[in-house]
Design brief:
There is one protein chain. This protein is of the alpha/beta class. It is 40% helix and 24% strand. The strands form 2 sheets. A 9-stranded mixed sheet has the order 6-5-4-7-8-9-10-11-12, with helices on one face. Strands 1-3-2 form a 3-stranded mixed sheet. Strand 4 and strand 5 form a beta hairpin. Helix 4 crosses helix 5 and helix 6 crosses helix 8. The N terminus is likely disordered.
Length: 265
């Protein structure tokens, strides 16, 4: 008792706590459990980290492996265009890992062919790339300062055999046209609207903002390049039932056509 009383109050309190801890096994057991739990969590974190690194490594290997490389390129809708050949030449697809195939780059290469109007590129896992193409087609010959040029409906110049028979579009009295002329687009639409048997021999003249055509040996005054689909429909009826070759047909208004009859031939 004399030694205990010699200690300061704080020292006596610490000694009493140590004695109580030594005497109470429940506190020691709790400390042991806490330590075991911390050790278990540390092991779990190490296992999780090792598993994640393994999965990443396997994933990287798999993405670069032949199992996920492009093994087949399926092209549909390609008749005249050669976009898929350009893709093959540039090595953009064949044998490349699927995840490295840039579909937008492939699409741009295919679209660089003037014959291609629309293209869709899709990855079909695990190892196929599909290229679906919609091609343009020539609608008419247009006389330009560089000679006759075959144009698609949207005004793109296409490389076509000069012997191919198509409608012809010129300026007044066979004058040349600038491809930027605003009436060329409507003139292309007009001949496209015509029935196939009337279309081939059609000749369209553009003079200022007025358009005149010769269809089935009839002179057709179309006026301004507007409502050309309706004008084409009315013209088919007039050619079939109400006019003869040599007639002049006024279609300034498709609802009020006027016909000046010619001599049957």
């Amino acid at each position: 008792m004399e030694r205990l009383s010699a200690l300061s109050p704080k020292g006596r309190r610490r000694k009493e706590e140590r004695n109580q801890t030594a005497l109470d096994p429940r506190i020691a057991e709790r400390a042991r459990r806490v330590q075991e739990k911390e050790e278990s969590q540390a092991v779990k974190r190490a296992v999780w980290l090792l598993s994640a690194m393994t999965l990443v490594g396997v994933g990287i290997w798999l993405l670069h492996s032949p199992y996920l490389a492009v093994q087949e390129v399926v092209v549909s809708g390609e008749v005249v265009s050669t976009g898929s050949q350009r893709v093959a030449r540039d090595g953009l697809i064949e044998g490349a890992p699927m995840f490295l195939v840039d579909t937008e780059s492939v699409r741009e290469v295919v679209l660089s062919d003037p014959w291609v109007s629309v293209v869709e590129v899709r990855k079909e896992w695990p190892n196929t790339v599909s290229i679906a193409v919609e091609e343009r087609y020539p609608v008419a010959w247009v006389l330009t300062g560089d000679g006759w040029r075959a144009l698609s409906l949207d005004g793109v110049v296409l490389d076509v055999d000069q012997e191919q028979v198509m409608p012809r579009i010129t300026g007044l009295a066979g004058a040349t046209l600038d491809l930027a002329h605003p009436s060329i687009g409507p003139a292309l639409e007009f001949v496209e609207y015509l029935r196939p048997d009337l279309r081939l021999g059609a000749v369209v003249e553009i003079h200022g903002q007025q358009v005149t055509a010769e269809v089935a040996k009839r002179v057709v005054r179309l006026g301004r390049p507007a409502e050309l689909d309706e004008k084409a429909d009315v013209l088919v009826v007039l050619v079939d039932d109400y006019t003869d070759p040599g007639s002049v047909i006024n279609l300034f208004s498709p609802l009020r056509p006027a016909v000046y009859r010619g001599t049957p031939g």
